[in-house]
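User: For a reading group we're discussing how well predicted structures match intuition. Take Secreted protein. Before you show the prediction, I'll give you the sequence so everyone sees exactly what went in.
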Amino acid sequence: MVKTIHQTRLAGLPCKLMIWTGLAMACSSTLHGIDAQQPSDQHLPATITELIDEWFWPDPYSHLGHVRNNGPGWEFVRIASDPQAGSDARLSADQIRLISAIAKNASENGTSGRVAEREQRWRDAERDARKLLNQTQQQRVDQLVIQRRGYRAFSDPEMVEELTLTSEQSSMIRAAIKRHATRVAENARELTVREGRLRDQEDVDGEQLKTQSMALNRERVQRGWLSHRQVWSDIRMILSIDQARLFEELRGTRPGGNETTSPTVDRRESRCRIVKNQLRQRLRSDLKTPENQHPGSVMMTCYGKKPPTEGSPRDLFQSMVPQTYQDYILMHPKLHQLEFDRQASVDVAESTFEYVDESIPESLDAAIDLMLKARVQTARLAAEVIRQRRDRLSTEQWIRIVEGYQFVPAIREQYPIGVKVNVWGHGAIPFGFLLLDNPKIAGITVQMRTLLDGKTMATTPDSGWRQNLPDVLLGKQPIGNHTIEYQADYRLTVGREVITGQCRSGEIDFQVIADQPDALAATMTDALHAQVSASIRALPISQGRERTYSTPAGQGKFRPVAKLRIPYLELTDPLPVALAMKVDVYFDDADQPHSRPEWIVPAGKVSRYEVEGMIGDGRLIDALSRRADGDGLVDATIVLIPDRSTALSHALIESYYPETIKVQAQWQLLSGG
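Assistant: Thanks. Here is the predicted 3D structure of Secreted protein, as C-alpha cells, for the group to look at:
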C-alpha cells in the first residue's frame, strides 16, 4: 500500500491517516462488529422524537422539500426565504421577504434549460442572498443546509475536504448508507408479504383489514426511523473523535435548542470557515472562465480530464492527475515534473482577489486550507492566490504551509522474513514549486531522515520543497512488529527571519512474518502468457533514443567518446497483472549481462522503457565497438526476469507476471567507439 501522511498533526488520531491502496484503516475493525440485525427486532418507537439525541435528528424542515438538481445554491436560498427556517436562523422579516423575491426570480423558468444552467442561476441567487446577511446569519443558514442534507452531507465534496475524510472512510460511509437502503427495502418487502397474507385470510373483514394494514404501514415507518438512526450510528463509528467533533460544529445545533456558537469554537475560526466557503465558491466559479477552459491553460494542460495530446505538456502529467495533490506524489516519482505547469496560464478573477484582500488574514488562512485539502483544480487556484499574495503572508501562515509537508512512503503491512525489500517514497510541500521559488520572499532547506524501530537508518543531504525519502533495506529484521518514521528538519527563511522546525510522519506500523509461498506471483495460464507475449516488443532502433557518451576531460569538462542509439521496450496493451522485472542485456554469446534498472509497470497501465543504465558505461561502448556491423548495428537479447523483491518494494503491486521474457532488440553505434 502507499500512504500519504501529513506531518505530526495526524499522529494519534485513529482514523486520520490518508491511505490509498490496500490498507485497512485503524478504525475499520470496529465496523466488522456493526449489528446487521433488522431494526424490527428492537423496540419500535412511538415517535421519532424518542430517537433524537446530540448526534441524530431528522430534517428539521421537511416541508421545504428537496430539488437536488438545482444545486447547493437552491438549498441556501430555500432555507433563507422560508419564514420558519429563516426565523430560526435569526433573519429579520425584511431579509426573508427580500430573499423570497430573489428565490421567486430564480424560479422563473426554473425547470427549463440544462442542469448546469439551473445550478448557475441558483448560485447567483445564493450570492445575492448572502449579501443581505451578516456572517453569523450566513453561518447559521449554512449549518441548516447541512442538517437538511442528513447523512448525504458526508458525500458532499466540500464536507469530504473539510473533515479530511480518507478514501477508505468515504467508501465505508457509502457502504453504511447502502445498508440503510437495503434494510428499508427488505422491511418493505417483508411487510408487503404480511399484508398480502392478511388479505388472503377469509375470516378477516374489511374493517379489520384496514386496521391491520394501518398498523403494518406504521411499523414500516417506525422501522425506517430505527434504520435511519442506525446509519448515523455507523457513520459516527467511522469518523475519528476529531472528525465527529468538527462535523458537529459545522452542522450546528438543532433548531429550538441552544443555537449560540459552541464555546470551544473560536470566533476567528468561525469567520475563517465562512470566508473559506466563500473563497471555495469563487474559485470554483473561476474554474469555468474561458481563460481556464482555454487549451493552453494549466487546467487543461495539467489538470484536465480529457486524454492529453501525445507530446503535449500534459502528456507528462498523464499518470499524475488523480483528485488531490497527495496523489500526484504517490503516482509519479519525478516530482520535478510538477514544475512544468508554470509553462501554462492560470486565471483567478480580479473580483476573487478583491474578496481576498478585503478578508485578510482569514482569506489567506482559507486559501492555505484549500490548497492543502481541496480537489486538485480548486487547490491549484488556491495556490495561485497564495502565490500572488505571498508578500502578505504572516510567518505563522508560512509555517502552516511548510507543516503541510506530506510524506508518501510505499510500504506494505507485512513482509516475509529474509526477503530483501527496499522501502522508499517521496515527500513534498504541496505546490512548493509555486510558493518557494523566490528566496527573497521565502526559502527553505530540508534534511530528511528515516527511523526504523526508533533508530536512524538513513539521511539525505539538504534539499528544498521536495525530497526523496531515504531508502530503508529490509530483510534482516526479526519476525514481529516494527515501525518506520520519517522526520524532516526544516529551516525556513521569511525575509530576514529564520524559523527552524520538524515535520514528522508519525510511526508507521508493519510486520515481518514467516516466509511463505509468493502470494504476489500471478497464476500462470496460457491466455496470460499469450497476452503478455503479444504486448511486449522492442521498437525498431530507428525509433530509439540517441545518447552521447563522454569521459571527464578535467576542469569540469567532458570529452565525447561515442554516440549511439538505444532501443525502447514497449508495453502496448494494459495487462491484468503488473510487471516487476530485472532487465539484463546479452550481446551475442556473452556470459555476463549488462544489467539495467528495473522495469515496473502497474497492472492496467502501458509503458515505454529506455534500455539504458548509467550513461557512460564503458563496457557497453566496448561491446558495441567489437560487434557493430557496417551500419553500426548490434543484435542483442533483452532478458526480463520477474523479481519478488522488486514486486514487494513497489507497494501498489498486488500481482505480478512470474515468468521470464526474452525480447530481441538492436543497438546502433553511430560514431566513436
